[in-house]
């Protein structure tokens, strides 16, 4: 009891002082998958085409095409992606050239870079991350799957080319 009283006294003493409030570091998103059942694409694997489905995915290699996923996609530091991506949540640690649509959240890690437009409900970018494109934040929650206009169509060379 005496120990707790000593902690409380020190807290009350700090609250009454004129010292500036300590700054807290911003939380940094990490590359931890929400579930252990994620589909993993290794660093030395290159995929071309259209990927659709439900579940989580960890992309560590290369991908060219489109990804339409109900779940979380995590793009690893070594990944090179040239694709339009629609998912519930998107975490970018590597390089993405294409548009991102997330009904939930987009996180850009310190090593992440995106060249393309981002449409999401929430976005966070760590120090060191880069984004070249427009950001549209729509705070309304999308229940179930995204609406048809929010989904992506198969990638075309015109859609993925940037000046």
Automatic annotation (TrEMBL):
Cited Pfam families: Bactofilin
Annotated region described as Disordered, given as residue ranges: 1-24, 136-163
InterPro entries: BacA/B
PANTHER family named among the record's database cross-references: HYPOTHETICAL CYTOSOLIC PROTEIN, POLYMER-FORMING CYTOSKELETAL PROTEIN
Entry similarity comment: Belongs to the bactofilin family.
Name of the featured protein: Polymer-forming cytoskeletal
Source lineage: Bacteria, Candidatus Methylomirabilota, Candidatus Methylomirabilia, Candidatus Methylomirabilales, Candidatus Methylomirabilaceae
